Amino acid sequence: MLKGLIGRKVGMTQIFDDDGIAFPVTLIEAGPCYVTQVKTVEKDGYSAVQLGFNEVKPKRLTGGQMGHLGRNDLPPLKVLREFRTSKPDVAEGDTLKADVFEAGERVDVVGTSKGRGFAGVVKRYHFNGGPKTHGQSDRLRRPGSLAAGTTPGRVFKGKRGPGRMGNDRVTSANVRVVLVDPERNLLAVDGSVPGPKGGMVIIKAARKQKTPGWAIASNGS
């Protein structure tokens, strides 16, 4: 089964384990997702599965989008995303729900971080700022000097400074699935995931699995 879903971040809560210890989890409304297209190497040059999520009113889609979904009698879906896979084991028109994943699995959750607008260096990069002494009463949150004088006579590229903060694509890698509720299409993953409440996220099988410490030691590396 394809290990991938599109979902919506519901919010954070806490879950208690068997010992009564609470730990934070993020609830994600994962699915139902519809298989809108299956791409093959012979026809498209690569192998992938396109999923659709977030049913909306037909007037919110273009004619081309409605025609694309109408090939398989699918409802109007606002969000379409592709998942690369070497062996597509689904057919167009199929429905995927939260039970694609199981509790204990490791996944990558991809989302868009909250936009913070134009931010200074203290908020953006955690600069300390300048001392509020010796006449510098207005330099507490300033970045300070950016470069030397005659040599090099310019500011190097990549210099950290004030600017747009947030609203970037962020991946929470190797997150553990704590709870799966296919009846309500809910996934609970350990810890936090990027984005605000209601933000769209992509859940897929983890690319980098953590290796236990004892396994590394036994290999002598």
Structural write-up:
It contains four helices and twelve strands; from the N terminus they run E-E-E-H-E-H-E-E-E-E-H-E-E-E-E-H. It has a six-stranded antiparallel barrel. It has a four-stranded antiparallel beta sheet with strand order 5-4-3-6. A two-stranded antiparallel ribbon has the order 8-9. The chain is extended and about 70 Å long. The chain is mainly beta and about 220 residues long.
Give short descriptive properties of this protein.
4-stranded antiparallel beta sheet; 4 helices; mainly beta
Report the sheet with the most strands, covering strand number, pairing sense and barrel closure: 6 strands, antiparallel, barrel
* Order of the strands making up the biggest sheet: 1-2-11-10-7-12
Structural class: mainly beta
Number of separate strands: 12
Taken in chain order, the helices and strands follow as EEEHEHEEEEHEEEEH
Low-confidence stretches: none
What characteristic shape results from the CA principal axes?
A: extended
Mean pLDDT: 89
Rg, alpha carbons: 23 Å
Q: In which range does the helix fraction lie?
A: 10-25%
Beta-strand content estimate: 35-45%
Specify the number of helices.
4
